[in-house]
## 1
Amino acid sequence: MRILLVEDEAKTAAYLRRGLAENGFTVELAARGDDGLHLALGEGFDLLILDVLLPGLDGWSLLAELRRAGRTTPAIFLTARDAVADRVKGLDLGADDYLVKPFAFSELLARVRSILRRGPVRRDEVLRIADLEIDPSRRRATRAGLRLDLTPKEFALLELLARRRGHPQSRTVIAEEVWDVNFDCDSNVVDVHIRRLRAKVDDPFPQKLIRTVRGVGYALDDEP
Ligand code: CA
């Protein structure tokens, strides 16, 4: 398993690289964001570990550029910023996880293993609920034949609810499955994304599909 670590603090970088190497990972290191982007675009990495504040190009821009180029390599952000708004921003850009500095190495290792363990999901069948169509293999969703412009996380959230249609999903389950993190304290990250998803999937159409299940969470179904 090859990991690209983009971190400009030399001590932290050396410490993480050694720890990951000791656990059997091959680690490439970049100290600048622009160098990291170059490496990430050029070579096949299984995972990216990105600092946010970096010379050359910040971690957010790096990931945004990579996603724009169609690369889906999973990414974990390391950051000193723990404000929810920043977290939402990072996750919106397609980060798979978030670790707030300082963190224990064992915690990073657990997140790395968890992300790499996620097997490929069946992505061949088109999911249909009322006039909503979700094509996981092409990452496309339409309603009444109209293309929905969704961020990667909004798409993942919609796909999760669609695969379990009619079954309410708790915020904890959603956070774990869509972001692979535990938002015990700030589950409003899920609420924020549901609100944005509704604005695109439900608001323009008479029939509402995303349902709030009081005391439980959210469900997707076409019940009246
Ligand atoms: Ca930094």
## 2
Amino acid sequence: MRMVDLIQKKRDGEELTAEEIQFIVEGYTDGSIPDYQISSLLMAIYFKGMTAAELADLTMAMVASGDQIDLSAIEGVKVDKHSTGGVGDTTTLVLGPLVAAAGVPVAKMSGRGLGHTGGTIDKLESIEGFHVEITSDEFIELVNKNKIAVVGQTGNLTPADKKLYALRDVTGTVNSIPLIASSIMSKKIAAGADAIVLDVKTGAGALVKTLEDSRALAQAMVNIGNNVGRKTMAVISDMSQPLGFAIGNALEVREAIDTLKGEGPEDLTELCLVLGSHMVYAAGLAESLEDARQMLLKVINNGEALEKFRVFIEAQGGDGSIVDDPSKLPQAAYKFELPAKEEGYVAEIIADHVGTAAMWLGAGRATKDSEIDLAVGLMLNKKIGDHVNAGDSLVTIYSNREEISQVKEELYKSIILAKEAVAPPVLVHQEITKE
Ligand code: URA
Ligand code: CA
């Protein structure tokens, strides 16, 4: 096989076979096919797209390029959740203990990553003593015993995706629905999930901004998963403003505790119930989505969801008493308010600017080696549709620095007020299951 022929084939809009796709992915991973030919192919895919069969083949070729996690020693249907990202998304912290309390085995492998705030592991590490350096035997044992454990990234998962993603980043081909869909799904499948629930964000703060593109991405991922034998469904949810109130590591842990007690922000709670219901249903533990939702409401109301969070924290060396007393979490030295300059209705909260402000406070990593300040962050006091009077606090800022004029300026840019009343955005746009 010659790579140049395969590039021309894709350029002309023809379908690549499974063998051809395997040849490409293997050749790129082992270095026998150079960057310039793959760059050209990626651009052809960007313009010509991929068929459902090509997408399944590309995904599985990337899975086969590295290690695959074997979770077969864990009892039950392992359901993983993936979110396409956004600002202040506290859902993972809530959903783990929530669905585990309902009986779903949560075997979470998580990373640190770059971003406005840390990854799930950084957030959990704001709890004194909590650690994710456990062996794979301990990990499996904990999931069987408690239904939930989190381990740091181990093994060499999907090296082909790592290499392709880096190349896409410098060749203008990140924003391609087939390439995003196969990239995300390859990682989930390699991590061993039997079933996958996807939270595809849409709106200004999301990777994919329009509802039409979000639908196409969600459908592509649902098709890939189901075509390769993993039950997969997607929820398209709003990211036209940050989810919940908290943006920051310890602040989000506190928000997760509130939500597990049934006292969390309305939007975060509702999204966790929607995603959680799909997880419980996919695990085969409920007859219907409505039954699954009732199971989740029950464990919130009877305290089992919060208790599960405590058991999970303590099993991994953390101080479980933070669930009763969140003031034991890291605290920032200074607290500032951001007063509204005029009366009006909140029309927009531009998530990207809010994220940048959180980053400047030190809540996130700009480069792989930056240190995160777990205590700092933002609490939104108003959301889209709320009425504000001049002088009302829009945001409470938790900082370890006294000088934050740049942060305040960025936040003023992010919150747009209107004279007329504004309707709050729709939270869940669509739920997509098999075609
Ligand atoms: N996240 C991924 O993992 N891959 C993409 O291609 C885009 C976002
Ligand atoms: Ca939040």
## 3
Amino acid sequence: MLCGRTNVNKFLIEEQRRNPALIGDLSMLISDIVRSCKAIAQGVSRGSLAGVLGDEGQVNVQGEVQKKLDVLANQAFLHHCEWGGHLAAMASEEMADIYPIPTEHPRGRYLLVFDPLDGSSNIDVNLSVGSIFSVLRCPERADDRPPSSADFLQPGSRQVAAGYALYGPSTMLVLTVGNGVFGFTLNREIGEFLLTHPNLRISPETREFAINASNERFWEPPVKRYVSECLAGRTGIRGQDFNMRWVASMVAEVHRILMRGGVFLYPRDSKDPAKPGRLRLMYEANPMAMIVDQAGGLASTGDAHILDVQPTSLHQRIPVILGSRHEVERLERYHREHANGEDQPFRSPLFSTRTLFRDD
Ligand code: AFP
């Protein structure tokens, strides 16, 4: 089919006609982001042939060893998005501080936050990785000072667009501009993302959950309770069997949930008291929460909706529980019951003897 499907540019122009807030800068900025993702897809797909696998030899602000592709993907975003005149500044997982738009380019009205290559531990073993992005309005300022990191610290509910690219068996772009969630597949022959998944919705019910079970001993009690009940399957209070998945790439997990439902948990844990969770609020949790919310799902810390959390720092970490609405609501209820001491049966030592891996 040569001309049947809507490409991402046509989609954005049609969205502009419906939503005046999109006119001009925002859709052009999204086109620049799309170009960054195409460039990254090219590098990821060539892998060893392009000599881009392996460690870069540097440690990022998170204390994690950077992969070569982490650095290249970060450069792709900066290169494609800095000159268009739509942005005032960018920030990413791979940069300790914000990146104000260089003075040779015009300064725009938006801020871009991104994780250039999420799940990068999967790169060297040729499994799915992705890029995640979030667009915020740059607060107006009376003088001409460049933006500061404080300008980025806006709750997720203020995002104007969010999305991800998934570099999997096919490359997909999933996007929301606040009017539903739309999925596009990269047609490599014509170099275009074509609309293949209009108006994605997450089913409210599911029998599938995703969690890194090796952290079980560090989980908070409401999460232990939930997972234990899922594992008990039809013999327990849930009365049905559950399936479990873990890809170690949030983009791939969220994408699976958009396609067939499910719940994803990277909860608060006691592994490292300095870190209240593994995932980063600004460029992982918030954009994914907007997508999930726009698709009819729910994203929570367990105690609060992620989109309502007021950020306190650029690289802040946060507990994340997201996906099928009824399961996330159940997890929120378990958190409330725990806080109120209403989960007594689950506090008994007998309850906590149920583990994922027993050697009896
Ligand atoms: P990176 O962005 O550093 O590659 O981390 C990926 C990630 O933040 C997220 O995509 C996964 O859900 C999670 O880490 C995997 O963590 P585990 O190492 O605990 O499996």
